[in-house]
Amino acid sequence: MTTLLRRLLALSGLRVFGVAVSVLLGALTVLFGVGLMATAGYLISRAAERPAVLSLTTAIVVLLSLEIAALVLLIGAQVIAEYERIEWEPVARPPRPMHTSA
Predict the structure, then answer these.
(1) pLDDT by 10s per residue, the chain, length 102
(2) Which of 14, 25, 70, 79 could form a disulfide with 32 if both were Cys (CB 3.0 to 4.6 A apart)?
(3) Is residue 56 included in any domain, yes or no?
(4) Measured between alpha carbons, how far is 79 from 29 in angstroms, rounded to an integer?
């Protein structure tokens, strides 16, 4: 598996560090999204019991923190991936003139 991954990275011309950081940030984004959904489910089921609002503040703060963290990680992964794509984009060459043989 690692030889295949190394071959694909060599063929694509991308740096391993940029791809690894982008994949890591994407995986962390997914994990924060799972935590976000779990916390939202807890908050909804707890709010259905109609407790005092102050008893829900911890869940609300955790929910907002996870949302902000997931957003920052997602934007970071996209910025790094876009930077890698732009940096390794082939240089556009001027078109060669077409010649016809007479």
Answers:
(1) 578 877 877 777 777 788 888 889 999 999 999 999 999 999 999 999 999 988 899 999 999 999 999 999 999 998 988 887 776 656 566 767 777 776
(2) 70
(3) yes
(4) 14
